[in-house]
Amino acid sequence: MSKSILIAGKYLPDATNFADGAEIKMRNVAITDPKISKETVPTSNIKTLPWSRPSPVAARTLILECERIFGNLDEVVLYFDESYFATKFHSLTMQNCSQTFDDALLGYQYLTLELLSRFEKNFLMNASLGKPQTVPKLVFLIRNSVNEFDIKKNAALRTDLPAPSNAFVAAAASAFVAFAENIAAVYNSQEYVEIILADADFENEMAKTDNALGQWLCDYLDELDAKKKPLSLKQSLSWVKVGSKVSKFLIF
């Protein structure tokens, strides 16, 4: 049976390759977009759903729509692509200050809280009905980039990426990492969710294309399903480097 996966953080067409990578790995895919008002269907297994990031109500609605479409939500990827945000918010203006916070931080936080609440509710409901349980996976995926501070220390880095991260985007990236780590620290002991921290360093060859990144992530999640014993606390709180297998972990 195909798994269902929600990808939140990059919008179409920018996220097309990542969604395609997940679809190749036998996923039914939902992807978010703020520009649409109702569900659209780019392909048979990839659906686009509206999501207004700075709205907790929109986060709750997004989750319920995924459950309505797929019946259940097996995996969620909160994808912070620093280079993507750097091209969207390249100037230090008041408008970009507010929108970077909404898009690159606040939206992820609202969606995380709603997901955790929904996962717990579903777990308790299924337990009371004696239904078999599958533990959903919540993935915090960051693909980091080069910021202005890095370039001042090493000017050669400027040619590596389309745009360096400014102060807003660099701050949001650091905040995303801190938020993900602390959510994992608190919730990885819960039986209703499994949290994965995934690090797609911009110098990692596999992380340079979204299609390969999406395929690796789905393979990794499948390996987690097949594992014979739970991950240790140290493993569950480690950032997994793109390309790693379940048996190998590297600290962020």
Strand percent estimate: 15-25%
Report the mean per-residue pLDDT as an integer: 88
Q: Give start-end ranges of low-pLDDT stretches.
A: none
Quote the distance from N terminus to C terminus.
33 Å
Question: How are the SSEs placed, and which strands pair?
Answer:
Elements: E1 3-8, H1 16-24, E2 27-33, E3 40-43, E4 46-50, H2 56-70, E5 75-81, H3 82-88, H4 94-129, E6 137-143, H5 148-153, H6 167-187, E7 194-199, H7 210-226, H8 233-236, E8 239-241
Parallel strand pairs: 1-2, 1-5, 2-4, 5-6, 6-7, 7-8
Antiparallel strand pairs: 3-4
Helix pairs in contact: 1-7, 2-4, 4-6
Describe the model.
The protein has 252 residues and is an alpha/beta fold. The protein contains eight helices and eight strands. Strands 3-4-2-1-5-6-7-8 form an eight-stranded mixed beta sheet, sandwiched between helices. Strand 3 and strand 4 form a beta hairpin. Helix 4 runs parallel beside helix 6. The two termini are 33 Å apart.
Essential attributes:
eight-stranded mixed β-sheet, 8 strands, 46% helix
Give a summary of the structure in a few sentences.
This protein has 252 residues and is of the alpha/beta class.
